[in-house]
Design goal:
CATH superfamily of the largest domain: Type I PLP-dependent aspartate aminotransferase-like (Major domain)
Largest sheet: 7 strands, mixed
Bound molecules: pyridoxal-5'-phosphate
Order of helices and strands: HHHHHHEHEHEHEHEEHEEEHEHHEEHHH
Strand content: 5-15%
Distance between the termini: 31 Å
Radius of gyration: 26 Å
Number of domains: 3
Oligomer: single chain
CATH class of the largest domain: Alpha Beta
Length: 496
């Protein structure tokens, strides 16, 4: 018996198409009590010429097959997932209970307003909570992801400028930004202008002022992530936002890292005009294959008229869906967005309350700093500026000494049962390894993780080939990363 067989996880699994037997079925339909239809006559040339070649399997065969496959998955429900910049925190099960309540889960999106009052009320209540947490005046729940929230916010900025008879073209973005920032800006017809963050990893007012100076009246806005993708707090924020406002621009705040500042700092109080939340990061709704995202946009009063349509409003005692929004940028998502995620986030916020949310951020920062303090004894940390919810390390010394790189270390971590941290991001750090432990992990888990990295660094010194060949305990050994990304074979075919 192999070790895998003992744990019940087998790494050899024939595809479903190679299972079963002709005529086997997992269903038992009752006999036909209506006249049979001649399919080829009814469908004409659209009718199939040959059977579809579907698997013929029993229910237990199907069920066991997919449960076994699911056991190969890495998930937040099974292991530590310290993916930097992604806030992969545990998804509390009470959220799942709430989202599965029949009145929410089975509500048809075309249900008339007066029969969907509970759902509309939950959305409005969530909007109010998110507005308060951000220090903003309004929220639209429509965007289905953080990146779509960015696009939506930039569309609102553009609509605002146009309403003033202006069409400035440039959005300023520091080089530490998440790749979605320049992408959203470009997709929205803006020119993305990069500028360097300072040597301490944060944006310096002088650098921004110099960048803005050359742009004249073409400054449409600034996109800034705070805390930034290095886990550092942009301490000059009020100065930076004032510089942009002086040039007639607006400030877009990427709120993907709100987990670090909940109840401690509000973007709206430090000059941000519009921002997105990532409910699937900060507010524990599942992501990374676990569920759809949700990227609500929070905005100041001056942008209110431009928010996506429709908007839920309260008239008297009733919640109504208002489509009469002449200045709106229009719809960005079908119906109301990913409603199930809103119920989960609402549940989470209401369960924790203001004190609980503050504790979330305090513990997220404490955990990240604990990992930083311990891990910086084996890997150099990229910036000595005190960090918030995540910490970035570099392979500089390790590679020079042993030839082992960040990618090797990340792959070897899989053998130790940990999901690799984010690697080679942000781009401004050489061989970056970015760890975001989140508040949901215990000291024991963090210690086990640091011990694993420490062990791998020792292996790199003693037997570098072992680390360079990792992973060793997985179904597939190391993939050709370029081919896996560019020529993925994701579909079974008879010929292959
Ligand atoms: C995750 C993230 C995004 C994008 O969010 P998605 O929901 O993945 O589209 C944008 N900016 C930052 C800083 C992020 O961490």
């Amino acid at each position: 018996m192999t070790p895998e067989a003992v744990t019940g996880i087998q790494f050899e699994e024939a595809p479903i198409f190679e299972r079963g037997a002709p005529g086997r079925s997992g269903t038992s339909a009752s006999t036909l009590d209506v006249p049979p239809v001649d399919v080829s006559r009814a469908l004409g040339s659209l009718a199939r010429k040959a059977p579809a070649g579907l698997p013929e399997v029993s229910e237990p065969e199907v069920f066991r097959h997919f449960v076994r496959l699911s056991q190969w998955n890495f998930s937040i429900d099974t292991q530590f997932y310290p993916l930097g910049s992604c806030t992969m925190k545990y998804n509390p099960k009470v959220n799942e209970w709430a989202a599965r309540l029949e009145g929410f889960a089975k509500l048809h999106p075309h249900t008339p307003d007066h029969l969907a009052q509970g759902a509309l009320e939950v959305m409005v209540a969530l909007e109010c909570l998110l507005a308060e947490i951000a220090g903003m005046d309004g929220v639209s729940l429509q965007p289905a992801a953080g990146a779509q929230g960015e696009l939506t916010g930039l569309m609102m900025i553009r609509a605002f400028h146009e309403s003033q008879g202006r069409s400035p073209k440039k959005i300023f973005i520091p080089d530490s930004a998440h790749g979605t920032n320049p992408a959203s800006s470009t997709l929205n017809g803006y020119e993305s202008v990069g500028f360097p963050a300072g040597s301490a990893g944060v944006v310096e007012p002088e650098t921004l002022a110099r960048a803005l100076e050359g742009a004249g009246d073409a400054v449409a806005g600034l996109m800034l992530t705070n805390p930034n993708t290095l886990g550092l707090y942009e301490s000059a924020m009020p100065k930076l936002t004032a510089l942009v406002h002086d040039k007639g621009g607006l400030v877009y705040g990427d709120g993907a890292n709100m987990n670090a500042v909940l109840g401690r700092a509000r973007p709206g109080d430090i000059g941000v005009d519009v921002m997105q939340y990532n409910l699937h990061k900060t507010f524990t709704t599942p992501h990374g294959g676990g569920g759809p995202g949700s990227g609500p946009v929070a905005f100041k009063k001056k942008l209110e008229a431009f928010q996506p349509s429709p908007v839920i409003v309260k008239r008297g005692e009733l919640f109504r869906v208002d489509y009469d929004r002449p200045k709106s940028i229009g719809r960005v998502r079908s119906f109301f967005g990913n409603f199930g995620m809103m119920v989960r986030a609402y549940t989470y916020i209401r369960e924790l309350g203001p004190e609980g949310l503050r504790a979330v951020s305090d513990l997220a920062v404490l955990n990240a700093n604990y990992v930083a303090a311990r891990l910086s004894q084996v890997l150099p940390i990229a910036f000595s500026t005190p960090s918030l919810h995540e910490a970035v390390f570099t392979d500089r010394e390790l590679e020079a000494e042993t030839g082992v790189k960040t990618l090797d270390l990340a792959k070897r971590l899989i053998d130790y049962g940990f999901h690799p941290p984010t690697v080679y991001f942000p781009l401004v750090v050489r061989g970056a390894l970015m760890v975001e432990p989140t508040e949901t992990e215990t000291k024991q888990t963090l210690d086990a993780f640091v011990d694993a990295v420490t062990a791998i660094v020792s292996e790199a010194r003693a037997t570098p080939e072992l680390v360079k060949g990792a992973p060793h305990n997985t179904r597939h050994r190391r993939l050709d990363e370029a081919r896996a990304a560019r020529q993925p074979r994701l579909r079974w075919s008879r010929e292959a």
